[in-house]
Amino acid sequence: MKLLILPGDGIGPEITDATCRALQALDRRFDIGFDMQTREIGLAAYKSGGETMPESVMQEIAETEATILGPTDTYNYPAEAKGGTRPSKAVRTTFDLYANIRPSRTRPGVPAMAKDMDLVVVRENTEGFYADRNMFLGDAEIMPTEDVAISLRKVTAKGSSRIARQAFEVARARRKKVTVVHKANVLKVGDGLFLRETRKVAEDYPDVELEEVIVDAMAALLIRKPESFDVVLTTNMFGDILSDEAAELSGGLGFGPSINAGDDHAIAQAAHGSAPDIAGQDLANPTALMLSSVMLLEWIARRHGNNGLATAAAHMDRAVDAALAKPETQTKDVGGPLGTEAFGEAVAQAITELDV
Ligand code: NAD
To answer: Which of 209, 232, 245, 327 has the fewest CB atoms within 10 Å, counting from its CB?
Structure first.
């Protein structure tokens, strides 16, 4: 089974190395037959070939079911016309990866601001306020004069409906509650449409409770009573912000996994960025990318009805928990002694030693 590995920028190479170490241990334990192929993207690819997202890599993603994408330092990329294509944008739009699924939960032994939390942010991933990717042609940010900037947000019935359906499906397999987060008191048209479509989809899921919360209140409620949320459905930008808040409540940004999923492709990608402030220092926590990889394996297992792969994914999830639960194998961001590489080794060891 081919896994395409794209390390990215900043801490990307370190956390993908640690993740690959864990995946290799999983491969040995379950005899899955991973064929891991690593390709350069981001600033390294720009330096060697003048493109942050080479066409050859895009082609390879198109031909590969499963890709693991490291974080990218897009803030420091050159303009798109000069080779600075943003990889997240390129893959999400080209492969129509409309669902960004971002779970956050407290884990045994991990110091966290939230006492008890287990939620999933289901974020629309292709439209909303992301002006660099929400148009068919051109950019949705314009400057009529040098002192006026206009950013356009796009919400469609189709985009809203399909992400709402994803959220209800996720909720049906969990605690059967969807909280739709919006700002329809101000964005009456755009968020009004998002709500309208969500309510329509909800009619097909009478067994799932639908709650509606305005985004500013949600930012507070997430801190006040995180345990009360199950599936949080929202538009692109709100989902990006709230999922970082949820990851932080669960222990830190290093604990926020995600997959970008469409109908035919899925890409594992940590919710956090390239963390240039700690890059190259063996300080990064690779948990988010490891758990994103677990989600990717689960996605493939579901798609092909592959129970063996589902068992392997669950095993890797338990191995990450086992390493995080012991103070002597915790990562430095939560006060533990292990750097990125050593934590990768600790998870690999847990994968080898834990009972299936
Ligand atoms: P960031 O998420 O990279 O970092 C924010 C803070 O969290 C930093 O203090 C960082 O050290 C810490 N942090 C993040 N991941 C960590 C980890 N795994 N372990 C320990 N600490 C971790 O956000 P930023 O600094 O605002 O952005 C840096 C760059 O990343 C920017 O160019 C931004 O555009 C980009 N970015 C990329 C993605 C992506 O590739 N998916 C997502 C967000 C931001």
So the answer is: 327
- Please give the distance of CA 222 from its chain centroid, rounded to a whole number: 19
Segments in 69-205 forming alpha helices (H): 87-94, 157-172, 190-202
Q: What is the dihedral of CA 77, 83, 88, 94, to 10 degrees?
A: 160
Instruction: Establish whether residue 53 lines the binding site of ligand 1, counting it when its CB lies within 6 angstroms of any ligand atom.
Output: no
CB 267 within 8 A of CB 97: yes
Cβ count near 333 (within 10 Å): 17
CB of 329 within 8 A of CB of 285?
no
Q: Judge whether residue 153 has pLDDT over 90.
A: yes
Structure tokens at 139: 């950019």
- Torsion sign (Cα): 129, 70, 260, 121: negative
d(CA 96, CA 264): 9
User: What radius of gyration do the chain's Cα atoms show?
Assistant: 20
**Of 135, 82, 70, 88, which is closest to residue 286 (Cα–Cα)?**
70
274 lines ligand 1 (CB under 6 A): yes
CA distance 149 to 155: 20
pLDDT at position 55 over 90:
yes
On the question of pLDDT at 288 being above 90, the answer is: yes
**What is the rounded CA–CA span in Å between residue 314 and residue 337?**
26
Strands 209-214 and 231-234, bridge-based pairing: unpaired
- C-beta of 251 in contact with ligand 1 (< 6 A): no
Q: What confidence score (pLDDT) does residue 108 get?
A: 94
Q: What number of CA atoms fall less than 13 Å from residue 293's CA on the CB side?
A: 31
